[in-house]
Amino acid sequence: MPEVREVRLPDDVRLHVEIDGPADAEVTAVLLHGWTLDGRAWHRQLADLRERFAGAVRVVTYDARGHGRSSCMPLPTATLAQLGDDLAVVLDAVVPAGRVVLAGHSMGGMSIMEYAHRHPGHFAARVAGLLFVSTTAEGHTHTVYGLSPRIARLIRLAETTGAGVLARCGSWRPPRALLRALRPSIRWMLFGDHCDPTDIRLVTSAVARASLRSIGGFRASIGAQHRLETLAELAHLPAAALVGDRDRLTPPPCAESIAAALPETELTVCPGAGHMLMMERPDEVNAALAGVLRRVLERPAAADAGPPAVAA
User: Is the pTM of this model over 0.85?
Assistant: First the structure.
């Protein structure tokens, strides 16, 4: 069973953290979930890492502020910049030593980029590998929901307006009855050609745990982020990126621009898959994460140190 810990952040927000594996493992993988989700999104990767690497890799997952079993937060801190700061605190608290591989899905990947941008020295000293799953470094530049640009603009306007309303609703959670009614829409937005019923239930349950403040509050920051220049400073690190060709939120051009900024990145495009690759294509995600971890484990620790990213 994983060790459960609570990390208290400087603004008194409490994060729910789970740690699996020995403290003296050679490498720690930290898995960051997406917007409105929680750490359970990585459950298939946790099982695979446990079996594949035994005691060589320690795994950390945590629920971002306002998500899952973590506490709600003041509205001004519902930003990607704050999530980057939170990641630095979590690493200091639960992974004080040793090499780290960061894996981020959607908002989690964007949080990694913010951490690299805002804490370049800290990042350079700790991070030895990267995995980006269904994420972007260009905000909503490529997000058209699989629709025509005109309809996409209308949806984005409605989404942005709705997000502003939700952000002012504080720590309230979405009513479960409403989420059950919206399940077909959630399935259409997040999944590709096929969806296991247990996966849509898990996603719906995660959304039900997210505060309305976090559902609405993070939207503006997610849409505005641009971090390709930050990524270009990390080209020395082993990395992989995956995307589904049916992803309506972070379509293939998002992953392609990440791979272009990180020339050593192994890019995988999954046919028929949507935004939830950890669930839809666990074998591909597991293999990519294992590949990065093996490359890190095969390198001497001194080889991981590279030039720190420079914050603009």
Answer: yes
